[in-house]
Design brief:
It is built from ten helices and no strands. By secondary structure, the chain is mainly α. It has one domain: Tetracycline Repressor, domain 2, CATH 1.10.357. The radius of gyration is 18 Å and the shape is globular.
């Protein structure tokens, strides 16, 4: 993952490369090497290794940046005057729409990256876009609409079980 401080310190070229890598990875990445990626992006191998120590770590950096964008997009879907459960629904709908373009090839290859498995990755990604799911879970009882306090894992369950 790329720490927010390190993200801010990236050069314009490094940001451009990470953005381009998202498109490259959409077609799958299991057969790609760091050398192949460097050639495809017309950059040096050293430049890629400055971003991440391995291809799998580079994939995680790209995924992490995308999750932050998704989180910001979803957070912007929440109006200040929304009821808590409506805010939760708006957030999850916007996040779902933002990830709807994920390709099967990318999802298949990501599933093979050990560090991207739910148990490890969710611990870091659950605060997507700042407060993210934790911020939504802190809505507590969702204005009394959920009937109980809801933790991060329960946020999705409230959405799915509510028929939204």
């Amino acid at each position: 993952m790329l720490a927010r401080e390190r993200e801010r310190a990236l050069t314009a070229r490094q940001r451009e490369l990470l953005d381009q890598l998202g498109g490259v990875f959409d077609g799958g990445f299991a057969d790609l090497t760091m050398a192949g990626l460097a050639a495809r992006l017309n950059c040096s191998l050293r430049t890629l290794y400055e971003l991440a120590p391995s291809r799998d770590e580079l994939v995680l950096v790209v995924v992490d940046r995308n999750l932050w964008r998704i989180g910001r997009t979803a957070a912007n879907a929440i109006a200040p005057d929304m009821a808590p459960l409506d805010a939760l629904r708006a957030y999850l709908r916007a996040a779902t729409e933002a990830v709807s373009g994920t390709t099967q090839a990318f999802a298949r290859d990501l599933a093979a990256v050990p560090a991207a498995q739910p148990a490890e990755f969710f611990l870091v990604a659950s605060d997507v876009g700042g407060d993210g799911l934790q911020g939504l879970a802190e809505l507590g009882d969702l204005g009394g609409q959920a009937g109980q306090r809801v933790g991060v894992a329960g946020v999705g369950a409230v959405f799915l079980n509510d028929g939204a």
